[in-house]
Amino acid sequence: MWKKIFGTVKKETSTDLYDQIDQKRLPAHIAIIMDGNGRWAQNKGLMRTFGHKAGVDTLKKILKAAIKLNVKVLTVYAFSTENWKRPHKEVDFLMALFAEYLEREINEMDEDNVKIQFLGRLDELPTTLYGQIENAQTRTKSNTGVQFNVAVNYGSRDEITRSVKIIAQKVLDQKLPVTEITEEIIDDNLYTGGQVPVDLVIRTSGDLRMSNFLLWQAAYAEFWFTKVNWPDFTPDCFFQAVLDFQNRDRRFGGLSEK
Ligand code: IPE
Ligand code: IPE
Ligand code: MG
């Protein structure tokens, strides 16, 4: 039973994993907790920062895989509201890395018709990074390809609290009666307002937890865990997760149709 918790990536020789995916039953929204950069580096006797750098290369490959697959939404967890607890040096390195990544990748993402959006308390980020984020969002706003959400300074509880505050203000301003507060209104006021719910959550590096990521949006998501650290995660791992997703029996509280 325990062995089954972790996804195993089949080493295909004749058939490509991608070719086995049923295009008609794709998860519309895939969310990834990109974990294990530090451990990857430490296992190699390197500083943790090397792991973060390698992790950025993986992200580029996985975004390309999502584009190839044509998923509607890909959300990745890059920095949590809790990650400020890390040493200053590591936090500074990560912020600089995000800025460098955006600067380097924005042209190609735009060419690939990707619509990029950042989720989180963005105004608390370094000013230059915040400026780049605003530019990237504005520039790709009308793109119609993959919706690419990057969660930075993101916490799900914080996001839900923020949604509640926006709604409470509307009630105070007498624009919304309490009786009309619905799940849809709470959902609309999250950073992901208007987007489809999460179908599949992938977490790398062996930990089995949500770490305050998309708690509301992933209420009925399927989970796919792997012991592979993020820098070693490949498009094949990604395709395998989608294939395994397609073999799950999603009942949403009802009864199986099988
Ligand atoms: C994930 O890798 C990246 C961030 C949280 C920014 P970690 O840095 O958490 O790597 P581990 O989990 O310590 O190995
Ligand atoms: C979750 O990873 C956050 C990101 C991947 C950005 P963490 O490494 O911060 O999570 P914990 O501390 O192991 O729960
Ligand atoms: Mg971690």
Question: What does this 3D model show about the protein?
Answer:
Helices cover 41% and strands 13% of the residues. The chain is α/β, with parallel strands linked by helices. The chain has one domain: Decaprenyl diphosphate synthase-like (Undecaprenyl pyrophosphate synthetase, 3-Layer(aba) Sandwich). The protein has a 6-stranded parallel beta sheet with strand order 3-4-2-1-5-6, with helices on both faces. Helix 3 runs parallel beside helix 4 (88-111) and helix 4 runs parallel beside helix 5 (127-140). It is globular, with a radius of gyration of 19 Å. The model has no long low-confidence stretch (mean pLDDT 96). The structure holds 3-methylbut-3-enyl trihydrogen diphosphate (2 copies) and magnesium ion. One 3-methylbut-3-enyl trihydrogen diphosphate binds next to strand 2.
